Amino acid sequence: MSEEEDDYMSDKFLSGLQDVRPSLVSNRAKKRLIRVESEQAENSKRQREAANASTANNVRLQESLNKPIAADNKGFQLLAKMGYKAGSGLGKQADARIEPIGISFKNDRGGLGREAAIAELAAKRQELRLRKAGIQSAEEISTEAYRRRATQKAEERKLNYDIRRCQQTCESLDLAAGVREPELDFFWPPKPIEPSIETEGDEPVEKQAESEEEKEELYSGAEQLELLTSYLRTAYTFCYWCGTHYESIEDLDRNCPGETRDEH
């Protein structure tokens, strides 16, 4: 065998064959990719054609529905035999129904039950929103009513804020003066509720119920704020509305505009 002739069993020849397999894999992958893209394009084209055909059919159907029924129509002829006249209504009353029932086209794939459920859900959500806002029905909604509710909510938030600030101030001044218990329960910020049953040995002993005379009176938020501000003025010459701790009662009376927010 001459040196110029190739040895088909040599490493040189076998190494040349190793480059063939990757090219075949690459070609197959490209062919598959091209086939998938082609199928996707064809599917998209078919969907567009079906949508266009459905729209065209709907348009033609609507146009035909808008046209009056011709006199040679079999249905029209049957109605005419029963006394129907063009332009008059059906039924015992002449004006019972003149226009035909409208047709609504459905283009999505959702079921009719789901549409009813979504409509009912929207109505329920609206009812809950109205109930939360203190409105019995949607007819009560108006600009004036909305403004009244917004003003009322803003006043309630401001009142609660003023009560909390007064309670914090009252507690701080009382503790600084050596007072260990508030004059009224709501004069200090509320504390965690303690259990009403104490244990003495192994036997639980219930606390004795307070008498009717000892029970705390209930006050509205505005009344609580009035009592708090009055107590702070009298006990500590402090005006919550001014935010000032005066030196004496005379200094308070001379420099403070008054006892209420409006006077400030």
Automatic annotation (TrEMBL):
It comes from the Eukaryota. Transmembrane segments: none annotated. InterPro entries: DUF4187 (IPR025239), G_patch_dom (IPR000467), GPATCH11 (IPR039249). PROSITE patterns: G_PATCH (PS50174). One of its GO terms (cellular component) is kinetochore. The lineage of its organism: Eukaryota, Metazoa, Ecdysozoa, Arthropoda, Hexapoda. Belongs to the GPATCH11 family. Residues 71-117 form the G-patch domain. Residues 31-59, 191-217 are annotated as: Disordered. SMART domains: DUF4187 (SM01173), G_patch (SM00443). One of its GO terms (molecular function) is nucleic acid binding. This is G patch domain-containing protein 11. Pfam families: DUF4187, G-patch. Residues 34-49 have a biased composition (Basic and acidic residues). It comes from Drosophila mojavensis (Fruit fly).
